[in-house]
Design a protein that fits this description.
Layout lengths: L1 E7 L3 H11 L8 E8 L2 H10 L5 E5 L8 H10 L5 E5 L4 H9 L4 E4 L4 H12 L17 H10 L4 H11 L4 H8 L3 H15 L4 H20 L1
Parallel strand pairs: 1-2, 1-3, 3-4, 4-5
């Protein structure tokens, strides 16, 4: 049986490296995986809609169309049954811990060796959490971020999806179109999100959301 993996990263060389690392059977009774590629966040979401049998997503959070950890939130909210491994050039404990707290099933550093990439993917496919070798996640040192993550985790899947789209800069009518619901429904979701995040405007919500992964995005783009 072959598993279906989506590799979403805007760097062709890194996608090739990932494909090379995982293009072998990753577990007992498994064939080499079927691999789909996406070079930006929009095409990643399209690929997931076109391939509902996807077993795993490897998601770069700093590719075009994404906005840090809001991209992870959007994928998890839209496709809650599909595990996600975050791949990033920023692999400090805070970034890894926040990714896991917001729903990632694993984290792979872009500097990881081939065997570590392969092991991380195999571990997640086996239902485990994959972390960088020897990493101690510790605890959140930023009280504001810790409280924000706690509040985000109280959102319903649809509310989390709406928040992720707000983080991508979409207007209510655009979100309504993407989700196939009325603009009034989206306004109700936005109001609930603002209340749960304890902010007064969507701008404040987006600013708060950007704080979670801002360091990661900045370092990945250098």
């Amino acid at each position: 049986m072959a598993v279906h993996i989506l590799v979403a990263d805007d760097h062709p060389l890194f996608r090739d490296a990932i494909k090379s690392a995982i293009s072998i059977p990753l577990g007992d009774d498994l064939e080499p995986p079927l691999i789909t590629e996406a070079e930006d966040f929009g095409s990643a979401m399209i690929a997931l809609n076109e391939h509902p049998d996807t077993d795993l997503v490897l998601l770069d959070l700093s590719m075009p169309g994404s906005s840090g950890l809001s991209a992870l939130m959007s994928v998890r909210a839209a496709f809650p049954a599909v595990p996600v491994i975050v791949i990033s050039g920023t692999d400090d404990a805070s970034t890894v811990r926040r990714s896991i707290e917001l729903g990632a099933s694993g984290f792979i550093s872009k500097s990881a060796r081939t065997e570590n990439i392969r092991k991380g993917v195999a571990d997640v496919l086996a239902g485990e959490i994959a972390l960088p070798e020897g990493m101690n996640l510790g605890s959140e040192h930023d009280a504001e971020i810790g409280e924000l993550i706690r509040r985000i985790r109280t959102l319903t899947p649809q509310q989390a999806r709406v928040l992720g789209m707000l983080g991508q800069g979409l207007l209510n009518k655009q979100i309504a179109y993407e989700l196939g619901v009325s603009e009034a429904t989206i306004k109700a979701h936005v109001s609930a999100v603002l209340q749960k995040l304890n902010v007064d405007s969507r701008t404040q919500a987006v600013i708060l959301l950007s704080k979670i992964g801002s360091d990661m995005l900045r370092e990945d783009q250098e």
